[in-house]
Amino acid sequence: MSQINQSPIWQSLIQHKKDIETISLREMFKSNPDRFNHFHIQFNDLLLDYSKHRVSRETIGLLVKLAKEADVEGWRNRMFEGEKINSTEHRAALHTALRNQKEMLIISDGEDIMPKVKNVLKKMRRFSEDVRSGQWKGFTGKAITSVINIGIGGSDLGPAMVCQALKAYGSKTITPYFVSNVDGADLSQTLEKCSPETTLFIIASKTFTTQETMTNAFSARDWFLKAAKDNQHIKKHFVALSTNQHAVSQFGIDIENMFEFWDWVGGRYSLWSAIGLSIALYIGMDGFEELLKGGFEMDEHFKTAPIEQNIPMIMGLLGVWYINFFNFPTHAILAYDQGLSKLAPYLQQADMESNGKFINREGERIDFHTGPVIWGEIGTNGQHAFYQLLHQGTEIVPADFIMPIQSQYKLGKDGNEHHKILLSNFIAQTQSLMLGKTYNEARTEIEKQGYEGEDIESFIPQKTFEGNRPTSSILFKKLTPKTLGQIIAMYEHKIFTQGIIWNINSFDQWGVEYGKQIAKQVLPKLSEKAPTDNFDSSTNGLINYIKKYQ
Length: 550
Prior knowledge:
Phosphoglucose isomerase, C-terminal domain, 48% helix
């Protein structure tokens, strides 16, 4: 099969890019005063404004044709129907089933998976309510006040991001912690804040063999047993999120304390599953189910809305437009909400682990760009750090600006002062990135500041902005569990859309696995006294240098 970049529609987009790149966004807004109404989509209270992108109606029409050429809609249907679209691992990608709100069969390997999904949700509710109410007691009869989730990758990033985002809805008696780094500092610094008597550990590992997670888990168990003394007490303080019942039991965790999930749940899509137990413990199972509901609502939008009015598809197509036709290699996530401080790191894994690939589904080398580098920071912090590059850097960075209209917190004059300042900055940044500042505008500004003669001429280039920097504005009423569910699912489907257009498998991660393989070869060499000569000269040199100081 020929690659998508050989198709006539791809060639049409190449030609169209040459035409449209000569027209600035400033000019586009001037020629079409109603541009916002033509280039925004609203779903529930969530608004995507993509009018500040370098697109016309013709651009969107061509991009829609590209999506149809790649059969994005057909692949979307195959995913929801449970086909094994994760071809290299021979698995379905049915994370959407975890948040399914309909009374319907979802078949995987000839079995309706919904009864299992519902049973785990019921078990999560019983357990979370017991812990949150204080009915679940530790080995000294005290209630749980600290929950430490030990996992890595999808078993950490998703739950950590959600708990941070929804602090306003969190328990006043339970504090969640997340340990992922095998660096001993991560676990040690967390344990310093906790008491063995009142700490619950969640060990999150599908196989229960993940090196980083299990190293931290065994150290956590040792720390606990120094205080508890008796292995029988482990069942009161450790639970497992896993598929490996034998390994869980060997660790000492009561099988009744094991929460199941399945092969068709990919790690970076797993917060909707039992992996979200820390979320349920922190915000309550009602809140967790609202998160699921929000994800489901976005699923329904993604399934039913035509491409032109489909938020995830339009976002995905805009990304393709910039990566493949403008050669913009990065994408910024700029959330104007402190709660969303972990959103960018979460989306780094979701996007870069999914679409950071140069081999297509047929095993062929791809000769065009795929996944962008995802990065970002929250709100005004970013303005005082890297926005200089966004405004005047040589690299153009498309960006998503994300903002709740209402704050979770009342602060300042009229209880709204802080948030109004945040809103004004959110709006100002997208406008200034779009407009830029012309030579004459810069001159007028400098003259008003009292500069004269040569000072004016020297300052003008420094205060001129090209503008024409594309941004999306994503607004919603308030950051709630349901809204957050919509946002997460929105990005999942955006990533899926791009993966289909590029004809890559967005659901495997062999690059991650390869690094782990090499680490297993290196580890025993670090304990040997004799110099190492098993690897290349650099690797040997690094290992032997380390040995000098061990």
